[in-house]
């Protein structure tokens, strides 16, 4: 099938390139319109959670009671009692347009001393905006923000709406910064790795096509679903990353075939029969890894699933059509005289593989112990949801939270809202009694009824602790354990309650995603290799490489290791969305490299029948491809390490570690050791499955011919 696809690409190369050009133009015009159709915000919340239900009720007649924006006024010399401080602030607050403002409270409008800092050199205004939608509130804030300015005073904006606005702005800035830093480095490395300027253009062509095609697919999805603004990040990272992987694999194989004396046409056909098959299987695994994200109901993870799977599909299709057409067009120019194919029995990785396989049990145990030890710190992880903690320490929203917490009696942004619903009219006395019981929950700092509308009531509660702390979790659990008035139901919202619901949603569905990805990987690898042992081994080894990344992330971002080097302020927690994204991206890339390696090992094994030799030769032939691809992918995502947004930095560091560990320690050392331990059993399948695979599987054709290989089950299993 794949050889036939190569022949088709050779014969139809001009039509393929013309069709690709038209598609790219269409995607550039229509697909880029997705930027105007992306849903507001990141969409971290579970739409079926109690906190979102409470938000939906508050969006109705009952209304919200929240301090969306906290405007902090400060002076080093003046106090709020000085007319030079008070009068300009009062004039500014009086001039703020009220069209989008539901409530604006200050020291002068309420007379409350709580609005004044302990040293009386600062005060704040608490603003509630009209819209129930967070991104609409961002737009409302931007329209009135300049009205709060007071010459001579330091004015800073905090609260959830300001935080969202600042995260949006910094994310866009950091995306541009990451690309500006990584792109020149990537271009240089592409030329070095491909050892040809012409060959280095291939991944750029495939990556550009994949990225624009993914935007077109994503815009189509927006016709039916609300997509998070963060989905674009996956497209930019994954499109180029996969293009590099696939182009490097195909060009390397194409050069090998040319060096062995094959004609350009024969080399293209052989490349598609081998590398094309590998690309297809690895692409299916990566796409299914992202499809697993659709098991989560949050818009953020759903969007990542749609964007990731779509990008993979476009990258694979481009690699199976555009890439062989380009190989035919460029021909022998992709294999200049200075590029030579190394003898697979003389290279460094060949020697490393044999060294590891001389003591396979000791090597396996030693590496497994190291990787497990690296992952153990992750058992003490404290989960968080994105909040102002993701901002740099000097960002206004984060600084305001710290200033208010240290200098004021209470933080106006730290509120939890309880929504009480009843099938009949609510009794005010029962509500007051319920508020008193809530006020007794440890961590609650005042609870009162702040609104009622028919059969609904709103209670507002203050708190003082970090909303991402374990104490906040205990407070929310305590609030939900308090019985509401008889015949009523209660739901809580606010940052602590939202964080609990998001964490519960992710942690409860993560095992199902892991099961889904495992089953799909097993099926795909079985179809590729006809073995039931290899899929199990591959999944276990990939989990080991992920565990090392997870442990490092806990030590770095929760415990504060390397915080000075990486320039962030730890908050004692890790974003709960992080492991889900890393599993989808890093597990997919790990399977990518696994299929690259095992396809070549299988090919050598069919030719020689020698377990150790086929492993060593396969590793030598693919090690440069895998390590080079990993290096280039690390450069693509490495720009995010410099981001000021902590969760972007977290994703960048996590992916770099996961890819580096997998491409070196796991593929270069652990895979040879375990394959030597398994011996011929690695290719084993029960007789019924082996018979099914001989009829319906997609085998790797023997070198230089189209004859089907001997099925794994036909080789009598025995220890190596």
UniProtKB/TrEMBL annotation:
Ranges for domain SSD: 198-329
Keyword Transmembrane: yes
Domain of life: Bacteria
InterPro entries, alphabetized: MMPL_dom, Mycobact_MmpL, SSD
Subcellular location: Cell membrane
Bilayer topology annotation: Multi-pass membrane protein
Entry keywords, A to Z: Cell membrane, Membrane, Transmembrane, Transmembrane helix
Residue ranges of the TM segments: 175-194, 201-224, 230-251, 279-298, 304-327, 361-384, 512-532, 539-557, 577-598, 625-645, 651-670
Pfam families xrefs: MMPL
Similarity comment: Belongs to the resistance-nodulation-cell division (RND) (TC 2.A.6) family. MmpL subfamily.
Name of the featured protein: Membrane protein
Phylogenetic classification of the source organism: Bacteria, Bacillati, Actinomycetota, Actinomycetes, Streptosporangiales
């Amino acid at each position: 099938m794949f050889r036939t696809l190569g022949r088709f690409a050779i014969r139809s190369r001009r039509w393929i390139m013309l069709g690709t050009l038209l598609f790219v133009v269409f995607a550039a015009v229509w697909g880029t319109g997705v930027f105007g159709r992306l849903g507001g915000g990141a969409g971290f919340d579970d739409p079926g959670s109690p906190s979102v239900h409470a938000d939906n009720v508050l969006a109705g007649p009952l209304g919200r009671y929240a301090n969306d924006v906290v405007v902090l006024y400060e002076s080093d010399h003046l106090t709020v009692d000085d007319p030079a401080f008070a009068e300009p602030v009062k004039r500014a607050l009086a001039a703020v347009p009220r069209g989008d403002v539901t409530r604006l409270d200050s020291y002068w409008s309420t007379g409350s001393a709580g609005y004044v800092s302990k040293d009386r050199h600062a005060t704040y205004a608490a603003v509630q905006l009209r819209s129930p939608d967070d991104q609409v509130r961002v737009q409302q804030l931007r329209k009135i923000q300049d009205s709060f300015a007071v010459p001579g005073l330091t004015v800073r904006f905090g609260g959830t709406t300001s935080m969202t606005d600042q995260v949006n702005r910094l994310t866009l800035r950091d995306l541009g910064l990451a690309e500006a830093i990584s792109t020149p480095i990537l271009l240089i490395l592409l030329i070095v790795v491909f050892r040809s300027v012409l060959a280095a253009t291939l991944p750029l062509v495939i990556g550009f096509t994949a990225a624009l095609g993914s935007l077109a697919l994503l815009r189509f999805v927006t016709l039916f679903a609300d997509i998070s603004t963060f989905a674009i990040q996956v497209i930019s990272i994954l499109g180029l990353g996969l293009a590099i992987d696939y182009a490097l694999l195909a060009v390397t194989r194409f050069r090998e075939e040319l060096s062995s004396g094959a004609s350009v046409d024969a080399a293209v056909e052989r490349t598609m029969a081998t590398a094309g098959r590998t690309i297809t299987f690895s692409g299916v695994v990566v796409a299914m890894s992202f499809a697993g994200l659709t098991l989560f109901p949050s818009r953020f993870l759903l969007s990542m699933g749609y964007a990731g799977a779509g990008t993979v599909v476009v990258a694979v299709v481009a690699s199976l059509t555009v890439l062989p057409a380009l190989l035919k067009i460029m021909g022998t120019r992709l294999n200049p005289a200075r590029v030579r194919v190394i003898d697979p029995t003389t290279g460094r990785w060949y020697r490393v593989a044999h060294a590891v396989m001389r003591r396979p049990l000791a090597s396996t145990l030693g590496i497994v112990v190291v990787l497990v030890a690296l992952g153990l710190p992750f058992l003490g992880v404290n989960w968080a949801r994105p909040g102002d903690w993701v901002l740099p320490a000097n960002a206004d929203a984060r600084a305001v939270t710290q200033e208010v917490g240290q200098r004021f009696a209470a933080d106006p942004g730290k509120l939890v809202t309880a929504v009480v619903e009843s099938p009949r009219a609510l009794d005010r006395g029962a509500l007051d009694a319920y508020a008193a019981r809530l006020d007794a929950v440890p961590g609650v700092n005042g609870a009162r009824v702040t609104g009622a509308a028919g059969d609904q009531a709103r209670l507002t509660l203050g708190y003082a602790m970090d909303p991402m702390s374990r104490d906040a979790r205990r407070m929310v659990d305590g609030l939900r354990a308090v019985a509401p008035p008889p015949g009523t139901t209660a739901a809580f919202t606010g940052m602590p309650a939202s964080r609990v619901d998001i964490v519960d949603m992710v942690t409860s569905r993560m095992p199902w995603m892991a099961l889904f990805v495992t089953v799909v990987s097993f099926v795909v690898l079985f179809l590729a290799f006809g073995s039931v042992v290899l899929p199990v081994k591959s999944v276990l080894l990939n989990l080991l490489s992920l565990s090392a990344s997870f442990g490092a992330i806990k030590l770095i971002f929760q415990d504060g290791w390397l915080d000075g080097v990486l320039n962030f302020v730890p908050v004692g927690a890790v974003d709960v969305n992080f492991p889900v994204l890393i599993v989808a991206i890093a597990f997919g890339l790990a399977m990518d490299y696994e299929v690259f390696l095992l396809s070549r090992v299988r090919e050598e094994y069919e030719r020689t029948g020698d377990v150790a030799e086929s492993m060593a030769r396969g590793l030598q032939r693919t090690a440069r491809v895998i390590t080079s691809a990993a290096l280039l992918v690390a450069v693509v995502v490495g720009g995010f390490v410099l981001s000021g947004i902590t969760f972007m930095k977290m994703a960048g560091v996590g992916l770099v570690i996961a890819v580096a560990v997998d491409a070196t320690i796991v593929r270069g050392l652990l895979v040879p050791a375990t394959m030597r331990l398994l011996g011929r059993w690695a290719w084993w399948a029960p007789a019924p499955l082996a018979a099914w695979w001989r009829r319906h599987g997609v085998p790797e054709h023997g070198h230089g011919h189209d004859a089907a290989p001997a099925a794994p089950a036909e080789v009598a299993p025995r220890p190596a």
